[in-house]
Amino acid sequence: DAGVIQSPRHEVTEMGQEVTLRCKLISGHNSLFWYRQTMMRGLELLIYFNNNVPIDDSGMPEDRFSAKMPNASFSTLKIQPSEPRDSAVYFCASLGGAGGLSTDTQYFGPGTRLTVL
Amino acid sequence: RKEVEQDPGPFNVPEGATVAFNCTYSNSASQSFFWYRQDCRKEPKLLMSVYSSGNEDGRFTAQLNRASQYISLLIRDSKLSDSATYLCVVRGYTGGFKTIFGAGTRLFVKA
């Protein structure tokens, strides 16, 4: 299995530009999480989906952030317009197994390192 | 108050030392608990799950106290390769398995 796939791995953009981050879940998993990690705030949960449905987006910082899951295996996180304070590492994580147990292991993608100038 | 709180660290210890990490969580309905390890510029990876009865994996021992909403991780005979950030993780069900991470505690093991 290829694991969780994220793209791009690095993104450098200018303030005001739109940024789209992408994530592909592990085959057979049904929950997807987007996290943001900074030195100051640690690993913050932004939003998570279960069976393609957004369950909790209370961690999304503001309306500039949006996330979609158009199918069972793929998600996007969009920032429009981007600001320098959005600079962080964005991780996508995949969870799920046949049993749907709360003890299932959550697997992370390698992350996207975003720099907004 | 954060949902999951950890010792801020960093911890600097010599090889062979025993080091303990502590974590508290605020949601008493939380169901599952884990410790993750994160190496520099890498993604977090599962170290071990934490059970109420306590569990051990080699040099690592995890404990859970539901009454106090407290989780711990003990590393015995620490190795240079144990240097990393250790993240406390709490999961509860709210239509899906909401999984919250603590900010992490950085560990440096020195020769």
The arrangement of helices and strands of chain B along the chain is: EEEEEEEEEEE
- Beta strand count of chain A: 11
Mean pLDDT of chain B: 94
Overall mean pLDDT of chain A: 93
Rg result of chain B:
14 Å
Terminal CA distance of chain A: 36 Å
Structural class of the helix and strand makeup of chain A? Answer: mainly beta
* Strand-residue proportion of chain B: over 45%
Helix tally of chain B equals 0
**What are the secondary-structure elements of chain A, in order, as H or E?**
EEEEEEEEEEE
Largest sheet of chain A, in brief, is: 7 strands, mixed
Q: Which segments of chain A are poorly predicted (pLDDT under 50) over 5 or more consecutive residues?
A: none
Main sheet properties of chain B: 6 strands, mixed
Calculate the terminal CA-CA distance of chain B, rounded to whole Å.
Answer: 37 Å
What does the overall shape of chain B look like?
A: globular
What is the strand content of chain A?
Answer: over 45%
**Counted beta strands of chain B:** 11
Largest interface pair: A-B, 24 and 24 residues
Keywords:
heterodimer; A: 117 residues; mainly beta; seven-stranded mixed β-sheet; four-stranded antiparallel β-sheet; globular; B: 111 residues; six-stranded mixed β-sheet; five-stranded antiparallel β-sheet
Describe the protein's topology.
The complex is a heterodimer of chains A (117) and B (111).
Chain A: E1 5-7, E2 10-13, E3 19-24, E4 31-38, E5 42-50, E6 53-56, E7 65-71, E8 74-79, E9 88-95, E10 107-108, E11 112-116
Parallel strand pairs in A: 2-11
Antiparallel strand pairs in A: 1-3, 3-8, 4-5, 4-9, 5-6, 7-8, 9-10, 9-11
Chain B: E1 4-6, E2 11-14, E3 19-25, E4 32-38, E5 45-50, E6 55-57, E7 60-65, E8 70-75, E9 84-93, E10 97-101, E11 105-110
Parallel strand pairs in B: 2-11
Antiparallel strand pairs in B: 1-3, 3-8, 4-5, 4-9, 6-7, 7-8, 9-10, 9-11
